[in-house]
Design brief:
The chain has about 170 residues and is mostly helical. It contains 7 helices and no strands. Keywords: Sigma factor, Transcription, Transcription regulation.
Length: about 170
């Protein structure tokens, strides 16, 4: 006697379709599975009744999850200069090196001046002085979350303003 599979309901009805669709588009099976599991977990943890089209929700969630993975992997790994050994520092010799350093220094000062005072102070204490976020929060009388937001704002601003100076 032949067994028939019961019809799949809910998110399970879309699971195989999700995997197949995104794997056909060239994404690694493991990445697609991880992202699909995250999307399904978010769906199950949230208010399912608020989602009118679970299929579209899952596809869009997997799309965004895969895009986030791509962006995380494509970012160049940045290592602070102070963490490099002396021989690993980028070499800049000649008269242009001094001019480039002076130009970058001016651009950094100008970019910091464009920031609100709390953002610039948080950046300076954290990145230049080596303070931790909780230390800065305690010193300024702010929440850790506020200090993190100031630091994020400062880093984004400096990245956009100084991007032209990166090698």
């Amino acid at each position: 006697m032949r067994r028939t599979r019961p019809a799949e309901h809910g998110w399970l009805a879309y699971y195989r379709e999700l995997l197949g669709t995104w794997q056909r588009k060239g994404h690694a099976a493991g990445d697609v599975e991880d992202t699909a599991h995250d999307a399904i977990a978010n769906l199950l943890e949230g208010d399912v009744s608020a989602i009118r089209n679970p299929r579209a929700y899952l596809h869009r969630s997997v799309y965004h999850g895969l895009a986030n993975q791509y962006h995380k992997r494509s970012r160049a790994a940045a290592i602070p200069l102070q963490d490099l050994d002396e021989g690993e520092h980028p070499a800049q010799d000649g008269p242009e090196a001094g001019a480039r350093t002076a130009q970058l220094s001016r651009a950094l000062r100008q970019a910091l001046d464009e920031l609100p005072e709390p953002c610039a102070a948080v950046f300076a204490w954290h990145r230049l002085e080596g303070w931790t976020v909780p230390e800065i929060a305690s010193h300024m009388g702010l929440s850790v979350s506020s200090v993190e937001k100031y630091l994020t704002r400062a880093m984004r601003h400096l990245h956009s303003r100084l991007h032209a100076y990166s090698p």
